[in-house]
Amino acid sequence: GGDRRCDVGALARIVDCQEFGVGKYRLLCVMGERIRVQRWLDDDPYPRAEIELWPDEPDGQADAARISNVEDRMVALLDRIGEARGTPVRSREIVESAGVDPENHLYALAARLPMGQADRYSLLAAPSEAARVEVLSEAVDTVTAMVEFQLSE
């Protein structure tokens, strides 16, 4: 009761499950296809919905140079955070490790960026790869501004 539901999500495949006692588990999941909720159904006992797969718009390919620019700005941001903490960060490795799965590359980059849930949802709900790059770029700008503000105090 009282939960907030979203109309965009992703299918997930459980690749590892560890039990930690009375009803507690740790799951490792891999993201699958994006989905849109068509209609919420009655809870039975958990939320249920009719969904459809939601592939990217066909003409929304992102420019490789634009993605590279976002990656470089993420590296600079992670370096700045590391400098402020006095701890070197292997930021280039962190960002480059997101490139393992080209289909989910932008989602993997977002997972490495300390951004809020609303920004993560905006990225997931973007209709194309090009739109996701713009959302991620704006998130990098926002996080960078927040970090710089905090460091200026």
Quick recap:
With 153 residues, the protein is an alpha+beta fold. It is 44% helix and 23% strand. It is built from five helices and three strands.
Written account of the structure:
The protein is an alpha+beta fold. About 45% of the residues lie in helices and about 25% in strands. It is built from five helices and three strands; from the N terminus they run βββααααα. A three-stranded antiparallel β-sheet has the order 1-2-3. β2 (about 25-40) and β3 form a beta hairpin. α1 (about 65-85) runs parallel beside α5 (about 130-150) and α4 (about 115-125) runs antiparallel to α5 (about 130-150). The protein starts with 7 loop residues before the first strand and ends with a helix. The model has no long low-confidence stretch (mean pLDDT about 90).
Keywords:
alpha+beta; single chain; 44% helix; 5 helices; three-stranded antiparallel sheet; 153 residues
Biggest sheet architecture: 3 strands, antiparallel
- DSSP summary: helix tally: 5
The largest sheet has its strands arranged as 1-2-3
What is the SS-derived class? alpha+beta
The end-to-end distance, rounded to whole angstroms, is 41 Å
Helix content: 40-55%
Uncertain segments: none
Rg from Cα: 18 Å
Query: N-to-C SSE series?
Result: EEEHHHHH
Shape: globular
- By DSSP, the count of extended strands is 3
Mean pLDDT: 90
Percentage of residues in DSSP E strands: 15-25%
